[in-house]
Amino acid sequence: MKKFISSLLSLILALASLSAYAQTGATDVPMADGLRAEGKIYVVVAIILIVLAGLITYLFTMDRKVKKLKNLLADKNHRTK
Amino acid sequence: MKNWLKIIAVFLLFYVHTAGLLFDVPRLNILNETIRALYFHVPMWFGMVTLFSISVYYSIVYLRNPTAENDRKAVENANVGLVFGILGMLTGMLWANYAWGSFWHGDPKQNGAAIALLVYLAYFILRGSVENEEQKARLSAVYNIFAFAAMIPLIFIIPRLTSSLHPGSGGNPGFNMYDLDNRMRMVFYPAVIGWILIGIWIVSLRVKMRTLEDKIHDIEDEKIH
Question: Which family is annotated (chain B) (predicted)?
């Protein structure tokens, strides 16, 4: 799992550097450049990822629970017959 | 649903939520940073249309081969599809408030999407109002085909025929003109695939839960008789 996460992170960073390399465009259009320069955008990203991770984990546990219930019911049904 | 598909979906969403905020986007007036909403708002609609398509497929299959399993699949795809549609509507309204000036702009795309959602809400009202299980399944399968046939023109055709502010409608091209350099596509397509997979995953869970519910009802019925 650790290896998976580190390879995932390195891929994202590689793609990010690729996109930074391709930076173009007019600078007169106001964008959140300050937020990026300060690095505080990473706080926002981290928070969103925590929420996402939490919800996905919840989905996985629900998945397990439904599977368990299915086995339980099949088991009970089998015994009563 | 296969476990590796779930892993892919999770991987894609983690990538999208990181890249969607960090990667470069075209600098455009009025839209500014809100252009990033594309990565999160549009995949909801892609998810909805995909799930509704799967739903209508199982409705047709049900009419040819009326099994409880086909009915369950049709209902749950429509159910999760509707959730995606409501999320798409809410995110679109918030975005419209900043890009167009008001939450409800009365734009043909907004109105069409709202009517389409109401048509699908009526599907569940129809299901709720019929007692007999087989009648319920058959009636709702027929209605589902009509609902799908109404949703496609309401969302994809009518907004293109009139003037609309929404990209991809009323002579407006989609976001194609903005992302000529493919920067946005690298995040947008993974977002679409990721959310569709998550939708299918939730559907599979709900189908399993409904199957269990039906089995418990069957056991109870057997006890009574």
Answer: Belongs to the CcmC/CycZ/HelC family.
